[in-house]
Amino acid sequence: IYALRLRRATDRASFYLEEKEAQDVSEDRGLAPLLQRAREESISVRPLSFVTNAPARDICDVAEVKHADIVLLGWHKPLLAGTMLSGTVHDVMESAPSAVGVFVDRGLDTVKRVLVPHLGREHDAAALAIAKRIAKSTDAQVTVLHVLSSGGAAPHSLGDVGQSVAVVTTDDVSPIDAATRESANGYDLVVIGIGQAWGLEHRSFGLRTEAILRSCPTSVLVVRGPVREPAESKAQRATH
Fold first, then answer.
1. What is the structure's pLDDT at 154?
2. Considering only CA atoms, which of 76, 82, 53, 69 is closest in space to residue 223?
3. 43, 78, 83, 110: most buried, per Cβ within 10 A?
């Protein structure tokens, strides 16, 4: 785990404070809460401090250089101040080569029950994979909410969700309403893949489309799966 602190650019060039300067970085007040929690949980974290005038680009560059599996961003502003998945968050969602998660905290303490709304889309699968990784570390119970269209027409396949995952099936014309209702049934965390059906299309955000993030009563982790390199690009690189 790399803890990255972004600092506002000054007249100096952007730079990294690498591991040899980790002690200075760890004293940074912006990283102190994360590093303290990591110590309490006996989790190894390498702090980095970054001076930048292009935060999204530099976050993506660090993720690529460090071969990150996921970039995890926190949401810190008041929910009614504007769109949630915009600005730097939007740019990272667009450009990061790895998976990206945006965490909306509503007082998450322990994780015992995780809900994954699922419509069979690409990023729903990424959300389920991350939920299962969380469960492996916390012994949490993962429940997939399998939302069918009204009348049960043209159901999509969940694929192999695994024996440790419970499945709840519901029939609703509005996947957003179905997910919001189910999230109120004692879950600690909702892990949801980005996508238009959930009102979370990362190319066009807005107050209306992000209603699920505002109405969901529990903490939410919005997931965008990793960017997949086209097969022809892989083949070309393999020949060099």
1. 44
2. 69
3. 83
